[in-house]
Amino acid sequence: MTTHSAAAEQQAIPAEQELPERKSIVDDFAGYRALRRRFQDLEDNDMAIPFFQPRDGVSHSVIRRDDKSLVSFSGYNYLGLNGHPAVTAAAKNAIDKYGTSASASRIVAGQIELHGELERKLANFLGTEDALVFISGYLTNVSVISHLLARPDAVIYDSGAHNSIITGARLSGAKTFTYQNGDWDGLDALLERERAGFRRGLIVAEGVYSMDGQILDLKKAVEIKKKHDMLLMVDEAHSFGIAGKTGRGVCEAAGMPVESIDVYMGTLSKTLASSGGYIAGDRGLIEYMRFLCPGLIFSVGLSPADTAAAIAALDILEREPHRPKRLRERAKFFRQVARENGLSIGGDEESPVASLIVGDDKMAMMLSHNLIARGIEVQPIVRPAVSATTARLRFFLTANHTEEQILQTVPVVAQELEKLRRSAD
Ligand SMILES: Cc1ncc(COP(=O)(O)O)c(C=O)c1O
After folding, report:
1. What is the predicted pLDDT for the residue at 19?
2. In this structure, which residue's CA is closest to atom 10 in ligand 1?
3. What's the 381 CA to ligand 1 centre distance in angstroms?
4. From the CB of 352, is ligand 1 less than 6 Å away?
5. Of the options 3.40.50.360, 3.30.360.10, 1.10.3720.10, 3.90.1150.10, the CATH number for the domain spanning 44-73+322-424
6. Which atom of ligand 1 sits closest to the CA of residue 136?
7. Do residues 230 and 246 make contact, with C-beta atoms less than 8 angstroms apart?
8. Is 194:231 a contact under the CB 8 Å cutoff?
9. CA 199 to centroid of ligand 1, rounded, Å
């Protein structure tokens, strides 16, 4: 434009009050309207939207936001390996060698040596015959579950299931059934009733539940799977590198044979300080998925940096089993201090996911907001992630949290919660 001048620009842009009201194609969508109402509610209460808040630096037990240091319980850098010098160096070397992208789906031209190395190491670590990595943990569940089961089959998951499991089950076209998390008699009765009505059946459970923090009772799950001739898939997003003496997950923790679980699933984004997901299991299962699973063959390979970071993190996990041990101890310590301060925290004693249920969405948002002012960052979890009456603050404990940080945090949380409850009365 040759007439580009301040005067011309002023003419082209109407004064703010003259701008037509912003219209969106989703303005009359019920879900969008509900979202806008919730934002309005926050604004009316002088609170910022607590989500998508930027932060500086590596997500350790302390983060920087707006030039302020906050003790953080919102990241799942469980073993403190994000930012570990060896992990960072491995990612940088991989970029130097391969660039920043795998540049194609692995089945065509996206395969690099590192992909095979990571898969071999994961399989060795878990004791399975083989493993396969995908570019996202979420995508791993969606794509593997929906590819494994189809019409005359059934997928059964519980009330705590992660959205990626539910989505995969729905997309599969198989029948879906749900049961109350931990209600093994309920699951048994459901299968007594329904088992004859479907061909193959897959029970999908989580090693550590991402919202409530319970650890899977693997013995029970395996007993029921065997009784009803089902397959068992366990999502170890929050138990890989955590549960079991050396962090090998729920099978190690329960002292059960590796074959007890048919499909191991996990993410690279938590203990392994990277991004992506994996499945592990028998050779045939992995071959079937490697050559035919849509989420693998129609999607780019895991990036070189992410692959190398996960390999380096896994190497450290193998060498340093004191990391998962410390994390489990911190989780126990957090719950003990919480009890001493009158707070009721959900989940098993050694679970790194520690939820404080506070009631409705507003209460959770306000508590999180008030804690920021006291130097503590912990995310509110609200609808649709949880039900309207179980809004909560979810604390992710990590091996990096010190006992001092926990001792300083918990009483402040108890005080702020008490203040809010009193003002609500
Ligand atoms: C139980 C569970 N499964 C799968 C995922 C998806 O993993 P990712 O975030 O690595 O895509 C998550 C994410 O937090 C999760 O909690």
Report:
1. 55
2. 137
3. 15
4. no
5. 3.90.1150.10
6. 11
7. no
8. no
9. 28
From the CA of 279, how far away is ligand 1's center (Å)? 13
Average pLDDT for consecutive 10-residue bins of the chain (425 residues)? 40 53 89 93 90 88 91 96 98 98 96 98 98 98 98 96 97 98 98 98 97 96 98 98 98 98 98 98 98 98 98 98 97 98 96 95 94 96 90 96 98 97 87
Residue nearest to atom 15 of ligand 1 (CA): 237
The residue nearest atom 11 of ligand 1, judged by CA position, is 137
CATH code for residues 85-319: 3.40.640.10
For the chain, residues classed under CATH 3.90.1150.10 are 44-73+322-424
Cα end-to-end distance, the chain, whole Å: 63
Catalytic site positions: 210, 238, 270
Exposed e or buried b per residue across 210-236, where buried means at least 16 C-beta atoms within 10 angstroms of its C-beta = bbbbbbbebebbbebbeebebbbbbbb
Q: Both tokens of residue 287?
A: 């071959």
Q: Where in the chain is the domain with CATH 3.40.640.10?
A: 85-319
- Residue 88, burial from CB neighbour count under 10 angstroms (0-12, 13-18, 19+): middle
Q: Is the CB of 362 under 6 A from ligand 1?
A: no
| Paired tokens of 101 | 């992208």
pLDDT digits over 260-301, tens only?
A: 999 999 999 999 999 999 999 999 999 999 999 999 999 999
In short, whether 370's Cβ falls inside 6 Å of ligand 1 is no
Number of C-beta neighbours around residue 385 at 10 A: 15
How many residues in total does the chain contain?
425
Q: Give per-residue pLDDT as tens, 170-227.
A: 999 999 999 999 999 999 999 999 999 999 999 999 999 999 999 999 999 999 999 9
Q: Is the CB of 274 under 6 A from ligand 1?
A: no
pLDDT (0 to 100) of residue 17: 56
